[in-house]
Structures are given as C-alpha cells and as structure tokens.
Structure prediction request, 586 residues.
Amino acid sequence: MTRRTAILAFSLAVVIGLLLGLQSWDLALGRVERSAIAAVEEKTGFVVKGIERAEIALLPFPRISLSRVGFSQRDSALSGEAVRVRAHLRLLPLLTGRLSFDRIDLVAPQIDVSVAPGSDGVTEWLAAPLAELERLRSQSKIVVQGGSIFLRANGVIQSVVRDLSLVIDERSLNEPLDLAGSLTWRGVPTEVNLRWPMVGGSAKAALSVTSPLLKLRFDGTRSGPEEPVVNGLLALSSPSVPELLRWFGEDSRLASALGALTLSADLQLKPHEASFNNAIASLDGERLDGVIKLSEGAGGRAALSGTLAGATLDIGRLVNRLPIPAIDAADTGPLDLDAWTAREIDLRISVDAARLNGARLNDVATYLLIKKGRFETGLLRAGAYGGSVKTRLLAVSAPAGVDIKLQAGLEKVNIGQASSDIPQLGRLSGNGTFQLALDGAGRTFDEMLGSLTGRANLSVKQGELAGAAFSDLLRRAERNPAQALRDWRQGKTPFESLTANAGIAGGLLVLTEAQMNGQTYRFNLSGNASLRSRTLDMVASLASTSSALKLPFSLKGPVASPLFELETEAFVSPASGTAFPALLTR
Prediction:
C-alpha cells in the first residue's frame, strides 16, 4: 500500500467514525436483540422462538451475532435451531443510526421440516417451505453453513439431508428465488442450482442437479399464479436407473430391467402431471423417440404412459435383468403379483429390429400394460426368420391367487435360419408353425402348475432332424440286425412333415398325436410330460413304409437331458419272427 493510499483509507475511517459518533447509539442488548430478531423475521420468513445471547461488532465489518437461535416458519412447516446466526449490517443505514441487514448466515442449523405421512417425494417435502418463501415481499441473502434437515411425519424421521451448504440470493418484490449449494442425501453428495419465479405471468425457471447418480439440467419458464405450468427443455442422465430410483425411495421391480439412461425432452409440468414431448431416450446406448407422460392415476398411484419408437432394442437384456422367480413346484412361497403392479403403466414400443435371448426379430411392436392387480405384456407383432411371432402374458389377481393366461404363436418360421441364433433349435430345420395356449390359477407355483390347462400344436414341413439317422437304422436292421445299433445317433433324418398335438390338464402334458413322416419311414411318439417335475415318460416307434419292420424306443428322464433309447428287448426280426437281444447287445 502506498503512503497516499494509506492516508486516504485512514481519513475515510476517521470520517466514518465521526459520523457514527454523532449518532445517538443505544447498543443495549435489548435493542440489539429486538432489531436483529425483527430483521431475521422480515428477511427470512422465520419466527424467532428464542436466543441465548446477542453480540455486535463493528470491525472488520459491522455485524450482529445471535447464539443458539430457535426459529420456525409461521405455518410451523419448518422449525429448527442454529448454533449461530450472523446478520451482516448495511453500512449506509448504519451511518444514519438504523440497523439494516444485507446477509444472514445460519451456522450449523438443525432444521425440522414437517411432511405428510406416506409422502416420499422431494417435491412434496419442499412444497411448504418454498411456499412460505414465496409469500415474502423481500428477502436478504441467506447463507446456510454445515446444516442438516430432518424430514419428519408425525415426529418420525422420513429422511435426513446432511452437509447442507446453501446460498439463497437476496431478492426484492417479484424477483425470482435463486439458490445454489451442495448437500448429501442418502449418502450421495449432490450439487444444486435453482432459479424459481415468485410471481404470476411468464418468468424464467432453471434447475441443475449434479451427483454420481444423476445429472439434470432444465431451462424454461413458469406461468400461471394459482396452478403454475412449467415448460422448457430437460436433459438428464443416470448410469443406473434402478439405483437412481432407490435414491429417491422408489424400489421398483420393473425398473430393474433398465440400466444406463439419457433423456432429453420438451418438458411440461402441470399439477399432478409431467409430459415429456419430443423425448429422446437412450437405454444402454439404444435410442428411442416418442412421448412419455407421468401422472397421478387411480387412488393417487403414479402412472406412466408413452409411445416410443427406435431402430434397435435388446428385449432379452431387459427381461433378463428382471428378478423373475424360477418356476419351481418346490417353491411354496406365495405368488406376489402386487409387487409387480405397484405402479400403473401403459407403454408401447416399436423398433425396426430387436433381439430376444439370441433370436433376431424385425418390425417389432411390443407393449406393457399394468394396473393394480393386473399385469399384461407381449408382442403385438414381430417378424422372425421369414415368418411372424405373437405372444401375450396376462396375470390377474383372483380369489384363487393369481390367474395366468399365456398365448404364443409362430407362423411359417424358418427353423434352420433360427437355429443359427438359438442353439436349442440346432437339431431341427424346416418351416414351422407353433401354437400354445395355457390357463391356470394358484397361490403358489405348485398350485399353478397343477391347475394348468391348455393345448400345444407344432407343425413343421420339409425339414431335417439332426442326431438320429432313422432311414439308415431301418436299412441296417433289415439287412444285418447285429449292426443296427451302430452309429444310428449320428447323421440326419430328412422328413416331409412333423406334427405334434398335446393337451394339458392337471399339470400333465399328454401327446394326443405326434408323428414324423419321411419317404421310407414313419415315426410316432406318445406319452406325457409332468410340468411339476419336468420329466418325460414317453414311448416311440419307428416303422418302415416298405416292410413290417418296427423299432420301439423310449424317451424318459428330465426335460433338459432325457434319454432316448432303442428298446432292444422288444426288437423282433421281420424275417425269422424271433427276438435277438443278444445279438444287438454284444
């Protein structure tokens, strides 16, 4: 500092001191307390309930400090206590003998916010405190340092905000509320910036939130004094939608299907409704465009509806993330449909191409329709390997537990092409049609499986069955029975038609007709499969179309790995009419 600057600063301090000295200052504790309390109440909207002591300091800048300050909002929605409240005095009013404040610091406040029982949303929690601030004609700059907020319903803590450091800028009548700061909520550090208009008409509104689970930015306007409408551009992203929802207190089974999400949209907020128009959503990098709406459904339940379209979607990845229980008769736990129907959903998605556990689909239209006690989903249409696929699953709460209806249909599907993507079909080729319809009800999986009724139909034309050379087996059996068992499980069997029809009742699938026909043979299969134990108990016969030779087989064991065996004990020579198991078993 130069000598000249020092002289000027000293002179200014002397002048200010003289001016202050000319005033009739009464700095008694009572006046300090009254003035400070009045200023705090006027500029913050708080009602001061009590203080421990008041102090005033003029240097290095004038301020009043209140210790152990208890306060509340006039409607009692908010109350608390601060270790210290510092009110920073304005210099010019002070020179005229008046106390006026331009900034109020709340140091380490513990704030209680009263919320309605059962409310679990940030919007509901902050509505009352913000409404009180909105009623203020003016407001000093408020700085919160190291505070905590306790959200209580009937005295019970619902949630806690910790490490609150917040700056609410000074504002005059009709000016917007501007705040910025950081906090830790449910263990996640978060930075927040908000501009919120406090008057009717059209005014700018903005919000940004940054945390490890969410990046959000909104720029728009709010209009309407009574029921405001907010319009603007929204952009948000999250590395994990399920974790984000759990952060907000929402544990949704269906949301577990989602992973990383980015969303941009024209947002319109109305009371009890949020519309996302021109929405662009990216699910794990796959883009969907359309319209989404969040609203309040029947009984106050949250409702989601929307129509989206895109180029590609991995449906299998979404389904595999769901916590779907294994269908096991040994599981005696009750079927819990309520957990899957906690929110109303009406969602339609169309994509040019989709994958479902390896299967490639095209021109796909799928849907999800959920209401309380009702869950429905399926493929309205889908192209697949030259044919088409349709599915429908409906689960409804019923007096008997859960009522299930399952329908699936494949039309003219090239099974050979499909087998390149679905290894389970690797043994079969041809153009196939399949129909399945099942109905059942029960409180457990065992009851459900035992009650199932329905039908299944399969028809395949001009194909091959790998893993069995039936024509070669018949030819060897006619010429040299001793060689009949050699290598018959290798090779392929071409067929002209394969049909299978089954009825389902009492937890048992019974083949009513199952036949495969080729130029030199006819293969028949009969028996049943237990849905409860997932085991097969079937017999088959392979007959030559040019002789009386007939070979018996058995198909038994677990569905996943059954034993398909030639019954040598019943093998009879067409030439001699005598059994020769010894020859076949050497």
